[in-house]
Amino acid sequence: MKFLLKDRALLRITGVDAEKFLQSQFSNNIENIKSQEVQINAYCQHQGKILGLLWIFVMKDNFYISLPSDLKETIISKLNLFKLMSKVEIEDCSKQIYQFGIIDEEYDNSFKISQNLSLLTSRKLIDSNTDLNIWEKSCIDTNLPEIFSTTSEKFIPQALNLDIEEYGVSFTKGCYPGQEVVARMHYLGKPKRRLFKFISKFKASVGDSIDVNDSSSLKPSGTVLRVSKIDAKYYLLGTFEIKHINDMIYLNNDTHKPLVISNG
């Protein structure tokens, strides 16, 4: 199935210093991007909190960055701030190139995101499914996190499982913004929050809080990162305090809106 990802922006990064520049900005090892694959990267601020999650791939020897549209201006501004004298050009090609999410299909010119998800780009509009809830559900099923403007600068990469098998973070590459904080957590501490899937009978939105009654934290125990509504159920992907996985869990601190952790 194909889905037009109308809420995603696309940036093209070119120039002789493009690879070196991107390597200095993002959490993963840009040098290890594989042909026809998307590499997940966190773009962090100096405290290690994620500004945005970026899908990076190489097409015709150019680097492309796919990201939620509501973060586009923030990310472009940040990249330009650090570009300085680097021979790099940052071009917004969101209106020239369409992006399609692919589930369980193979195309010669697509870029693999996970085992069953791929990204397809096209300069022409292709017939596609318009129900993005199906796409969101597949992203949730595969534990693919997302950051939007409502959840930007709130989480370190470990809270989104990006450190597991170095899925979205390389601990052997050079420095990038927030690298010291992220590395310190990896080598000296254990993450208190991880990704979990939830099912709700009640309407939920990205940024909603996930709460328990006896949490000692001043912040909510969790936050909703992705939402899909299928029939009468809401499927959620959120970051949540590990120690509370066996407690009663609620949406937006409302005991009349219980959440159930899903193992599916």
Mind describing the biggest β-sheet? 6 strands, antiparallel, barrel
Question: Which band does the percent of strand residues land in?
Answer: 25-35%
Cα-atom Rg, whole angstroms? 18 Å
The dominant shape is globular
Structural class by secondary-structure content: alpha+beta
- The multimeric state of the shown protein is single chain
**Gross CATH architecture of the largest domain:** 2-Layer Sandwich
CATH superfamily membership of the largest domain: Aminomethyltransferase beta-barrel domains
What is the domain total for the residues? 2
Poorly predicted residue ranges = none
**Beta-strand segment tally:** 15
What topology, given as strand order, has the largest sheet?
10-13-12-11-14-15
Terminal residue distance:
21 Å
Q: Which CATH first-tier class of the largest domain would you pick? A: Alpha Beta
Order of helices and strands: EEHEEEHEEEEHHEEEEEE
| CATH topology title of the largest domain | Alpha-Beta Plaits
